[in-house]
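Homework help board

Subject: predicted structure for assignment chain

Our instructor gave us this sequence and asked us to write out the predicted structure in token form, then describe one feature. I got the tokens but I'm not sure how to describe them. Can anyone check?
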Amino acid sequence: MQITLQIKCSTRLSDSIKENGIKLYGKQNYQCKICKRQFIGDHALSYQGCLSGIKSKILHLMVRGCGVRDIAEVERVSMGKVLRTLSQSKYQLQTRKTHYEILEVDEFWTFVGNKQNKQWLIYAYHRETGEIVAYVWDKRDLTTAKRLKLKLKQLGVSYTDISSDNWGSFVTTFKKCKQLIGKFFTVGIEGNNCRLRHWIRRGFRRNFNFSKKLDNHSKAFDLVFFYINNGFI
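My token output:
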């Protein structure tokens, strides 16, 4: 059985090409006669990063706790391909409702580059649906807690009760609404913190997997939050 492949220049979409020598690793090299671009004819068949559906697989592995190097090794793609797929992803959190009876709020620490560069995630969680309602990144202080309250307002979210631990910034920020203070009232969000540390490689407490860029760090969390709320990516 003989298979015939039609080779075209991906830039010009032209079939006006010529053979242009052999690569050191034995592959036939081609050159477009119009734009002079050189390429390997079977690159799309030999490199897994060109296959359809590979981006979806990379993102799915990422939300299940796989690191960049692990994904590159398993899927036989470059680390650059994995990082580009993450950096080009655009996932935005969307709330399911406009009013919640009880929201739990808590803080969650991670780091970028080194453990001295801590990045605090402050977010609101709805225990009944397992939904992450809103979140902000910054320092662990009163200003960031107030930014979370502002983010809820910007999203058009109202709530009856707020559950939190006894951190003073939460107590001060939500003092005008009914507060349920104590670890007993934050069991749901503490459990979700554990889930995040299992699903996001950058969230592991003791490991060598961390982001070097803040943008990639936040996009990894955006991806997982969207997956938790919607069940798909």
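Reply (TA_rk): Your tokens look well-formed. For the description, you could write something like this. Residues 8-46 form one domain. That's the kind of observation they're looking for.
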